Amino acid sequence: MKLSSYISVDCVVLGYDSEQLNVLLVERKLDDKVNDSPFEPDWTLTGNHVYLDEDIEEAANRVLYDLTGFSEIYLEQFKTFAAPDRLLKPKDQVWLKSIGMDPLKRVVTIGFFALLATQKVSLKWMGRNVKWTPVKEVGDLAFDHNQILDSALIAIRNKMRHEPLGFELLPEKFTLTQLQQVYEQIFDAKFDKRNFRKKVNRMQYVIALDEKQKGVPHKPAQLYKFSREIYEQTKRELLEFFV
Amino acid sequence: MKLSSYISVDCVVLGYDSEQLNVLLVERKLDDKVNDSPFEPDWTLTGNHVYLDEDIEEAANRVLYDLTGFSEIYLEQFKTFAAPDRLLKPKDQVWLKSIGMDPLKRVVTIGFFALLATQKVSLKWMGRNVKWTPVKEVGDLAFDHNQILDSALIAIRNKMRHEPLGFELLPEKFTLTQLQQVYEQIFDAKFDKRNFRKKVNRMQYVIALDEKQKGVPHKPAQLYKFSREIYEQTKRELLEFFV
DNA sequence: TTACATAGTGTAACTTGTACACTAACTTAC
DNA sequence: GTAAGTTAGTGTACAAGTTACACTATGTAA
User: Fold this and answer.
1) A 154-193 residues with CB below 8 A of B?
2) What pTM was estimated for this model as a whole?
3) Between chain B's N and C termini, which has fewer beta carbons within 10 Å?
4) Which CATH class is domain A170-242?
5) Nearest residue: Cα versus C1' of D16
6) Which fold has domain A3-160?
7) What is the pLDDT of residue A145?
8) Where are the domain boundaries for CATH 1.10.10.10 in chain B?
């Protein structure tokens, strides 16, 4: 299959693990490095080329499927990066020449963000090391991937003001404390527990289950679920979220 | 200058003219048409190829400058379109072959929206007919440009919920009725005049000028201006807009 | 049985949203 | 210069939402 080599997708995969918000990073292989310096950053976001007969959404889903084994992950395009000095890897330049194509100087990449609960993921990707890193502790990434990550976080925050994305970071059954923590992490803010719960109570699409948390060394919390159906019906009235 | 032919930008240029929200369309030339049928739509959004040494933001600004003669227009990337069946024009395919490049089947285009007050614009572009069309009366456009327009309107609405984009559609000095009309057009809604003004009054960055409207056949309205400086200082407190 | 940890709950003061109708100021036509 | 036409500009009462704040309840583990 031929690659349209100059178009790629990069996925900012965010996961919440009951403590913090994490981003999925993959370790670079040696032959990915642009020069031989050992000081180049070792970690990148997940991404891949886009095939010629493939839409970019398909390509991003393919990356996520290879990574997690799941295909129903929340995924959304947020920005395209095309600065002329974006780097094409040397091995790709060689390969492009070998098939008679112009080894262009830049790769245009379409940034996607994906949201999921970390426990779902198997963490294997093309034989490389993969790790969750707390978003607040991400160091230098390769290429312009720090910039892509920052843009993703801004896009997610903006979208979360008026769409119920927070639930995508939680398992199907969750506690209100977990929900609150998700929003606190995303917006880097602290909310008042009672006021937060008052607001959730007004959301008819957050439904209390007949079930409690298990295996915790303290009072177990009530579990809730999110109903997208009810949300779709009532969203006109209840649009504002937590920030 | 060589073109990186498979990347283009398309600009959804929106203008407000004291009555309605309009979008700028350009007429196609005959040799743009994919086949000879006279039934193909005659109008498109403005767009162009992206040069190899050019970022996409630069390319979009170039399109806007060619069109309007202005270079300080509010412009923002909103979505990238890359469906495999997006069409490359026949003349471009011929041209790409002539310079030894693979005539790929699709053009990846990055969609931008631009906001301005219509009176600013001179309306000339590459020798073609250009016209403002009320957004509500746009008919069939060429390629997937109706889809691009719809996506732009959704992106603008979402952004306008928490950023002061409405002012970009007005001249520097505007009346509160004009401001209200902009938001009514964008959100396709009617607001109560007194409540709207109450809300504006709370926005310290909308400043009453010592000046009134002129040349209107009725009571002239107070003029106001928007101060981005004050907005930047106070935005944490006053984030919500009109919808 | 006690210590520990987190869950879960209510109220009062204040701010914002909503619904609603008349007078003021200017121009034009007669 | 008077009347008709047009848009500007204003206030109030009620409902809803926001904010700040501290204690009791229920489970586990030692």
Assistant:
1) 158-159, 161-162
2) 0.89
3) N
4) mainly alpha
5) A202
6) Nucleoside Triphosphate Pyrophosphohydrolase (3.90.79)
7) 96
8) 170-242
